[in-house]
Design a protein that fits this description.
This protein is an alpha/beta fold. The chain is built from ten helices and 17 strands.
């Protein structure tokens, strides 16, 4: 079909990956009950597909005790979540933790380094002439998500490294890895983050990774956008050959991704944003998978409690024991305004 004969609906479905992409988002192409899609109005795309999709976080929750690479450990500057110090125009200072008195509460978060938690490594991390975080374009925001699982292999060998054969096996089952997609390597290593943080750190050098021939194939042959993995490094070689190749050749990567066992191997999208801090070589990000409407995990837009968000019967109060705001004290005010205009 010539470009001039393609209707707006067909053009848009092509941009989303064709009829297969439409079905993957939980709505059959041409279904009678599907809202009409207008290629000039992306609200119609939301109504037809994204409003029915299931959303799953792929990001760890951080606390001061979360796993931390040994190179960032400094007893004088540990990770900390403390009430912010507020200073008024008369020079009076106080810690911002008393909602009843000030109608406000906020954190001062001190992080030990930019490679912490679920984060993106910009290419500049390994080469100063490569792109930094703020130079990653907005076109990265929404992409097809490919999940290649090595969880079974890693269950028997915690140092298993994904091979080119593993990629070929995925492609034999699902077809070629789409160009421009994000490939996430599932190993289930992320479960150690909470269950066994010391094991997650893998300071013995044993953790699931990816061989360089698989990485090069995905980038050079399949033209993927970038990849993500669950561990703190891409591979277990002494010089990190896979990670070095990725970053030195201008590709970012995501480390410490989570919950890949809760998303499908094909048919989902991944959405996220990149903090635009000038010259930063890595930083925390939040990712969410957008899964088919028929998928068994995730939340659907409009679920009860989405907006407004639920009121809690226990209020946030700073805990010296955990070093964080915790919900440990009973709320003394009814559900309603607690700010300056009580």
């Amino acid at each position: 079909m010539r470009a001039g004969t393609v209707g707006r609906r067909e053009w848009l479905l092509g941009a989303l990956g064709g009829v297969a992409g439409a079905a993957a988002l939980g709505v059959a192409a041409g279904a009678e009950d599907s809202p009409r899609v207008d290629g000039q109005n992306l609200w119609s795309v939301w109504d037809a597909y994204f409003a029915r999709a299931k959303y799953v976080y792929l990001t760890h929750v951080l606390t001061p005790d979360s796993p931390l690479w040994y190179g960032f450990r400094n007893p004088q500057h540990p990770p900390s979540f403390k009430p912010a110090l507020i200073t008024d125009d008369r020079g009076k200072s106080w810690h911002d933790e008393n909602w009843d008195q000030d109608g406000h509460g906020s954190y001062r978060v001190e992080i030990p380094g930019t490679d912490w938690g679920t984060h993106m490594d910009a290419p500049a991390e390994f080469h100063p002439c490569q792109a930094a975080m703020e130079e990653i374009p907005p076109t990265y925001t929404l992409r097809k998500l490919v999940v290649i699982s090595i969880a079974e292999q890693a269950r028997h060998d915690i140092a298993y490294q994904m091979t080119l054969d593993d990629v070929h096996a995925w492609e034999k089952k699902h077809g070629a890895v789409p160009a421009g997609s994000v490939v996430a390597v599932r190993s289930d290593w992320y479960k150690n983050w909470d269950e066994n943080p010391q094991r997650f750190l893998a300071e013995d050098g044993r953790f699931p990774g990816i061989r360089i021939e698989a990485i090069r194939y995905l980038h050079e042959e399949r033209k993927i956008l970038f990849h993500a993995h669950e561990g703190m490094d891409t591979d277990t070689t002494p010089t990190l050959v896979s990670e070095d190749w990725i970053l030195s050749n201008g590709y970012p990567q995501v480390e410490c991704i989570a919950n890949l066992d809760l998303v499908p191997e094909t048919g989902a999208l991944v959405a996220f944003g990149v903090p635009r801090l000038r010259g930063t070589t890595a930083f925390l990000i939040t990712l969410a998978a957008v899964c088919p409407a028929s998928w068994k995990h995730g939340l659907v837009p409009g679920f009860r409690g989405e907006s407004p968000l639920p009121f809690h019967d226990k209020k946030l109060a700073y805990s010296k024991k955990t070093g964080m705001f915790e919900r440990e004290q009973v709320c003394t005010r009814p559900n309603g305004k607690m700010g300056l205009n009580k």
